[in-house]
Amino acid sequence: MEIKLTQHSKGGGCGCKIAPSVLSEILAAHNVGAKNNIPQLIVGNDSRDDAAVYMLDDKTAMISTTDFFMPIVDDAFAFGQIAAANAISDVYAMGGKPIFALAVLGWPLATLPASVAAQVMEGARKTCAEAGIVIAGGHSIDSQDPIFGLVVNGLVAIENLKQNNTAKEGDVLIITKPLGVGILATAQKRGLLTKPDLALLVKQLTTINKAGEALGKIKGVHAMTDVTGFGLAGHLTEMMQGSNLTAKISFASIPIIKEAYNYIAQKTIPGATARNWNATSEGILLDKDIDQSIASLILPDPQTNGGLLIAVDPSAVNEVQAILKEAGILYNQPIGICETYNNKNIIITA
């Protein structure tokens, strides 16, 4: 009997994330960073960055992150690949080099055989090998829903560390993957996704953001993050709020998986989309010529292992594009610019 993992969980991928407003409530009394008299902790959770960063000496820091979720695809091997790629991305998003990982596994042994969990682990090992690391240990529990992810540790030269709140006025914005995987993943869960579109979905979800390590060495890259469960709207909002800037974005320049529009027409919208939009829309100004009914589904679409969102000085754009092209990344064109803050986090033009 064919096992479809997405039918064994209520959510999938980074769409499982707790809503931004609820997360803020949970973390309201738990902001930890250097200001808490922990000077070695360069990045804590106070800036909502991709990972924690701890200074090892005056030149080197450790990056530590964890990411796990319920199945976003039916195939167990692919699920392991995707979950691993998504977790490793947090290290790349900070300009670091991953060094090893630990597995986090929750498995409903009463309904899914252990052999399927072994396939998940095998997929994760393949992705880790691509990143040049091993899964050195981990922890597992018997849980109601299948859950998998990694704890990933990495290293970075402190001078190359990239954060999500250090963009500068005049910076050009680039995103390295198209939006829409949340919509395609929802279509799969509902049995509507075509085989060609499933192949497209899996390819994007399993592609690691390895270029982030090289981008970390470019001084003109002022800020970087990866776009995941809060969508472009959420993660760009975090970058702009942290940097006290406004992003002016051309909607026509945002890369979007064209097949996603077919599934929008079939109303296959992730449950997290509306909550993401509700959390960010007040700070977003849409041009009157933009179809809000489409923008409000694309901009907050929850991404899993999404692209790197890069804020780069105009003088370094060519260098960034050269690295992305060498890595085989097709999406390397600017989508907007960072401007002086003017009461909105993001302005979207047609």
3D architecture notes:
The protein starts with 19 loop residues before the first helix and ends with a strand. Helices cover 33% and strands 23% of the residues. The chain is built from eleven helices and 13 strands. With 350 residues, it is of the alpha+beta class. Helix 2 (76-92) packs parallel to helix 3. It folds into two domains: 5-160, PurM-like, N-terminal domain (60s Ribosomal Protein L30, Chain: A); 172-349, Phosphoribosyl-aminoimidazole Synthetase, Chain A, domain 2 (Alpha-Beta Complex). The protein has a seven-stranded mixed sheet, covered by helices on one side. A six-stranded mixed sheet has the order 1-2-3-6-4-5, covered by helices on one side. A hairpin with a 4-residue loop joins strand 2 and strand 3.
